[in-house]
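Feature request, filed as a ticket because there's no other form

It would be nice if the structure record came with a short human-readable summary line next to the tokens. Right now we just get the raw output. Example of a typical job, pasted below so the devs can see what we mean:
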Amino acid sequence: MAGSKFSASVMAAALAGLVLTGCAGDRDAALRQNLDQFTAEDIYKRGEFELENSGKPADAVFYFSEIERLYPYSEWARRALIMQAYGNHRAGNYEEARGAAQRFLDSYPGDEDAAYAQYLLALSYYDQIDDVGRDQGLTFQALQGLRTVIEQYPDSEYARSAILKFDLAFDHLAAKEMEIGRYYLKQGHYAASVNRFRVVVEEFQTTTQTPEALLRLVEAYLALGLPDEAQTAGAILGHNFQSSPFYDDAFRQLRGRGLSPEVRGDNWLSNVYRQTIQGRWL
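Raw output as currently delivered:
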């Protein structure tokens, strides 16, 4: 037993020395020629070391991927695969992170780390949607991945974080609609702006964008000469967000036209009022 421990420590030290000597090109070539002389555990530990100490997660990914190549059916290959996903995500290689996470889910769907793999898969999309102007397809993919975590792994330690990120991603979609709607409103394309703000009110009403969407509907409908719709939008805003500065602004605009925030006419907004405030769905 003592001999085997000594042998393992010598091999690990040799592997460390191999990494720390020579130029990058020589090192990579040497590694590819000699890694098969080490155990899967030795290579895994070196990958962990690189991940924790080198500041270059891509170097760690190299070791984890080599385990998958050299010891494809081992327990270490399973562990290395999830670490590939994590290391690639840390390196900002989101597509590679998704690939590794998906391979893990395909190969080990019932594993205890499956929830984490699904969470990493969702994060690989979520972490690319910081900018409202980015491709909204990423946001939809993030929502789908996060929903899977929430629904399939509700008792996992990642479910709560997934719920919070889901709400933020959902708000992000509403923010995109608002951005476009405000542009149309500013350009005087009032009907087009209404269409965008309507999407927020009807499909994203639980987001933080809803109060402003109702205010902008007041503005757009007043500009279109449709006081019933403007007043009804103001009524919904006042009922749900009376303490909001958006309501104060809407109230001033309505009063400036001799109007008040109240439900008027039979339009889509009056239907929203009946359904969400009065609870009348028919």
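Something like this underneath would help us a lot:
The chain is about 75% helix and 0% strand.
The two ends are 78 Å apart (CA to CA).
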